[in-house]
Amino acid sequence: MIGQSAQAPSAVVTIRPHRFSPNPATTTDNAFQGTDPTRDEVSLASDAFREATAVADVLRAHGVRVHMFEDETSDRPDAVFPNNWFSTHAGGRIALYPMYSPSRRTERRPDVVRHLVETYRVQEVVDYSPLELDGTFLEGTGAMVLDHVDRVAYAARSNRANPDALHRFCSQFGYEPVVFDAADGAGQAIYHTNVLMCIASDVALVGLDLITDPARRALVEGRLRASGRRVVALDEQQVRDFAGNAIEVRGRRGRLLVMSRRAAASLSPTQRRTIEKSCPIVDVDVPTIELAGGSVRCMIAGVHLAPREVGSRRSARAGAVHGDVGAPGSLASV
Asked: Which portions of the chain have biased composition (kind: Polar residues) (predicted)?
């Protein structure tokens, strides 16, 4: 029998980009972005399409349900990273998030939300995107790393993780916020918490040394250990190789930790053994998409919702056709 886990979703959403390119509008605060002058725009887009397809194929091969959407636009270069603009939660709730760069705000797609409403039991869609008008941003499970079991939201302060927005989310969704500062060796703030840490059911990968305040560093490590997880401390180079940008999912044979091939190659044998005491590591090669400053975890939005029965799915579809994106739940802007 496959063990259940509140931390590891058995279904995910991915976006397959047709015209991918690293986003020039986000380079100022994303030190993980890169360039490849040996490839033109066409080859970059073709390779990113192939890599996104491979991630979905690997997940499906392990029995994970994948809802893959296409993005054929040329004005959404980061569309491949859907976990930044929405998250789903047990009890039938979806959150939509305020995005720091105006170039990313059109990534929020009603058709994706509508599909989730039609396929899963959704009671409420909470829309935080109006906070953009106040210059307040919280880029989903990029800005936050959520412990769904102990109900803790870890967040490194940055342009993309405003503590006030975080506290508002935590108050409404029932998480305790743990906020800290994190920076690389050059002193630049880590732009997204999910490149720094990954929380799985029994293990947590975290770049502890990049948390600048020793007291906060000890607090984060202590909270993770108190939750019963083994802590795998990542060094700065491993964080740059996206070892922290992993996600645990649940397939037909149990849980697995999915990360990029580059990330997996950066792990030491001891770290790998520690992780694999909990679940196997599955890696996928995504070097083109990593030029955009994110990796496999950024490409995957977990679905923590209960599926609908067939009959109720038809009813929800009928409501959505009439333009009620939140049907049969409600859409609340905050």
From this structure: 23-36
In a domain, 317, yes or no: yes
**Nearest one of 292, 179, 312 to 245, comparing CA atoms:** 292
Q: Identify whether 6 is part of a domain.
A: no
Confidence of residue 324 (pLDDT cuts 50, 70, 90): very low
- Taking only the tens place, the pLDDT of each residue in 5-43 is 699 999 999 999 999 988 888 988 898 989 899 999 999
- CA separation for the pair 195, 273 (Å, rounded): 21
Q: Could you tell me the pTM of the whole model?
A: 0.91
CB 140 within 8 A of CB 164: no
Query: One-letter amino acid identity for 95?
Result: A
CB 176 within 8 A of CB 148: no
Q: Give 301's DSSP letter.
A: E
CATH number of the domain enclosing 199 = 3.75.10.10
- pLDDT tens-digit map of 162-188: 999 999 999 999 999 999 999 999 999
| Residue 1 maps to a domain | no
Determine, yes or no, domain membership for 3. Answer: no
